[in-house]
Input
Amino acid sequence: MTQVSHRQWGEVSGRGAVDLWVLQSPQVRVEVLTLGAIIRSVYSRDKDGQIEDIVLGYDDLEGYLSDKRYLGAVVGRVANRIARGHFVVEGKEYQLDINNGPNALHGGLWGFNKAIWLATAVEGGVQLSLTSPDGDQGYPGEVQVSVSYTLQEETLTAEYQARSTKTTPINLTNHSYFNLAGQGSADIYDHEVSISAESYLPVDDTSIPKGETKGVEGTPFDLRKPVLIGRQLQEVPSPGFDHNFCLSSPGAAWTERHAARVCHPASGRVLEVSTSQPGVQFYTANFLDGSMTGKGGARYQKHSSFCLETQNWPDAVNQASFPDCLLRPGEDYRHITRFTFTTV
Ligand code: BGC
Output
């Protein structure tokens, strides 16, 4: 049985209140903010019953308002990169703002991570919704978006839905940074990761996929069997993992499948991720540099956490061989990702 409660957490001048929703099951406590549909905390037990918060974040609203690293947030309208922020849909050219080298990243300068979402209680959780107007950040069509977070025992389910008045690219994910030793721990080198992917997407020097899918066999991206993250980081090109792993082929049917497992042997904590999305970005927090002050005064450093961003393949709107990322009027966008927190 999950208990759900909420209270006001802060106020953004001129924009209104930000609420904190608390989802408490016998095993796990999840805190969600109406700002950015952010997962603010995940408290889970280790093998000895010791409770820690295992996601990075900030102590106050100011931290989240000035955040540039998407800590815990839902990112959209299009998560990950669009090459040069440019695409053509139904013969019409669109130019987005450039906010990451020469490319557009995570929905633009004012993405879904900065919006205050409307919250309603649902069985075991909360549903957050927003309207993204036609032309928002340069994207076509008015889009109705909702994300529901529900907690059942040790499983947190995120369900994303959207509809649009015009054909638009869409790609929604959650950008939580995890450290299974407890947020604020120095690094994730002692975590073991496995990802259920036979191939990944090699990228250019601006992190745009080159177009080919490459088999993981014989490469440092072969994570089909558990590997120690610290050791594997010595094998991948610097600064670390920031790559899409392909979970299914373009055109594959909508099915939920196992994506990844991370285990922290010292605490016994395990995170399992499953999803209906065709890819997952495994990102080892390469661009955190100790400059932000996080929860409890923590200074988050490079490799202090990892993200498993379930998603469509990056730049899919420009790459015809990638899974379709277009949402057309009358269609329903729907994806599910489950995070399960257990111990060994
Ligand atoms: C990207 C990284 C980026 C991070 C935070 C990830 O999804 O792949 O390159 O630095 O998000 O902005």
User: Anything to note?
Assistant: Residues 69-70, 80, 207, 242, 281, 283, 287, 309 surround beta-D-glucopyranose (CB under 6 Å).
